[in-house]
Design goal:
With about 450 residues, this protein is of the alpha+beta class. Helix content is about 60%, strand content about 5%. The chain contains 21 helices and six strands. The chain has helices at about 35-50, 80-85, 90-105, 125-130, 150-160, 165-180, 185-195, 205-210, 215-230, 235-255, 255-265, 270-285, 285-300, 305-315, 320-335, 340-350, 355-370, 375-385, 390-400, 405-420, 425-445, and strands spanning about 1-10, 30, 60, 70-75, 75-80, 135. A six-stranded mixed β-sheet has the order 4-5-3-2-1-6. Strand 4 (about 70-75) and strand 5 (about 75-80) form a beta hairpin. The radius of gyration is 22 Å and the shape is globular. It starts with a strand and ends with a helix. It comes from Roseovarius litoreus.
Length: about 450
């Protein structure tokens, strides 16, 4: 599991949702291929019912213990880790996804007073800069943190839904759940968590209550609709499994190892129990027990790429690079298009000194997902080790640009521009970064 600081999305304004309570707080994404796959499995039937593409709409996790979920464009739904851990059933989590999907399908984003398209931070840097950009936080669970500030008034203007929008999203979301056979009573259970929030002072409210206005009438409508759709519910063992796996893995990384070991088997799934035990042992630096547990999980699901990926992480963070490369390599064979797994494999190859091969996999990772700037950092290292100093400077410049550090980006882009052949693709990319850095400098003045 990687912690990555979220810096830019399609618009700088989009950062405001994450800083409603504390404008100077750091923003972090939790990137884990296993959890993201699980969330996608849970979201797929809801997104299809909403007329959205499951392959285009990503469900991303924010590292924040508060309860919140939000959207900023048509292609991403953000969920706070605290909200995921608070959910007791897959239907509760799917109701949140359905509600946010309804905001997208109903066009609520387009009615907001801030035009996101006019706030792109570095046009011309490609899909990586148009997507949620990030800066690596270091190995394991360490996370870097740089403050992003914004005025509370602007935040609320951009992210607060009107009551009319909320009512429409409630009705649409419940309809999507019913069409997908999901228990609509999950929506009632979620809304029950937030009842009474509006009578609290602003500082005591959960972010979700501040951006999604609640009322007694609204709650009664949700109850009535949920009961009307209750007969549409169909059992879904796969949803039960993937919900247990996502929540189980997240809690194993975020709770104390002793807590995890005590509750490892609470999901009822033997492989998830073993996976959670592996994480807890790894966090205690007991590598032998961690590997024994994850190997036992793999024995139960031998074609599961995410268990091999977790084994690779355990070995990598234990500095057993050759073994980590083998584990990641098996994960790549089983999930050859997964950007996070490709990036981790490239990182392991780089640690082994297989620089050219590492660069190939890192490039493949970046082409599929431009959000992981750990990949860009590793790419810069790979270029530097092969004597490609101009490309190393360019990739570093792009990484800084994605993180919002445009002054640093400009310095490295100038260095890249001086070293790369004039008119080449790399040189033109450097000019794009320079233009963004210069525009930012002019605004500061």
């Amino acid at each position: 599991m990687q912690l990555i600081r979220l810096i830019a999305f399609c618009a700088l304004s989009a950062l405001m949702a994450l800083t409603l309570a504390n404008p100077a707080r750091a923003l972090t994404l939790l990137r884990d291929p296993d959890i993201e796959y699980a969330l996608k499995q849970l979201a797929e039937p809801v997104l299809k019912a909403a007329g959205l593409s499951p392959s285009r709409t990503d469900i991303l996790l924010i590292d924040d213990s508060s309860l919140n979920a939000f959207v900023v464009d048509r292609d991403h739904i953000f969920i706070h880790s605290g909200l995921l851990l608070k959910m007791r059933t897959p239907a509760m989590l799917q109701s949140v996804i359905a509600h946010e999907a309804a905001h997208i399908s109903n066009g609520h984003l387009m009615r907001r007073p801030v035009n996101m398209r006019n706030a792109r931070t570095a046009a011309g840097l490609g899909a990586a800069l148009a997507a949620a950009a990030a800066i690596a936080a270091g190995a394991g669970e360490a996370a870097g943190a740089a403050a992003i500030g914004a005025q509370t008034t602007a935040q609320r203007l951009f992210f607060t839904h009107t009551r009319a929008e909320e009512n429409a999203a409630d009705q649409s979301g419940l309809r999507y759940m019913a069409a997908a056979g999901i228990d609509t009573r999950g929506a009632v259970e979620v809304m029950d968590i937030f009842r009474g929030q509006e009578v609290l002072s602003l500082g005591r409210q959960d972010p979700y209550a501040r951006t999604h206005p609640m009322s007694a009438d609204r709650f009664r409508v949700i109850q009535r609709l949920a009961e009307a759709y209750a007969s549409e519910t169909r059992a879904n063992p796969a949803a039960d499994y993937w919900f247990a796996r996502a929540k189980g893995k997240l809690s194993a990384f975020q709770r104390a190892p002793k807590w995890t070991l005590t509750r490892a088997g609470e999901t009822g799934y033997a492989d998830i129990k073993l996976m959670r035990q592996a994480i807890a042992h790894h966090r205690r630096s007991d590598t032998s027990r961690a590997i024994a547990a994850i190997d036992a999980a793999i024995a139960q699901r031998p074609n599961d790429p995410f268990y091999y990926e977790l084994k690779g992480q355990i070995l990598m963070e234990s500095r057993r690079f050759a073994a980590a490369t083998a584990a990641y390599g098996r994960a790549v064979n089983l999930a050859p298009e997964n950007a996070l797994i490709l990036g981790s494999y490239g990182r392991a190859l780089l640690a082994e000194g297989k620089v050219s091969q590492a660069q190939d996999y890192l490039e493949r990772s970046r082409s599929r997902d431009g959000r992981d700037s750990r990949v860009m950092r590793d790419l810069a290292v790979a270029h530097a080790r092969q004597g490609n100093k101009g490309m190393a400077a360019l990739v570093t410049a792009e990484r800084y640009a994605m993180s919002g550090r445009l002054q640093d980006a400009g310095l490295h882009a100038q260095r890249a521009s001086d070293m790369l052949p004039r008119g080449s693709t790399g040189w033109r990319r450097a000019q794009d970064v320079l233009s963004a850095a210069q525009a930012a400098e002019q605004k500061r003045r």
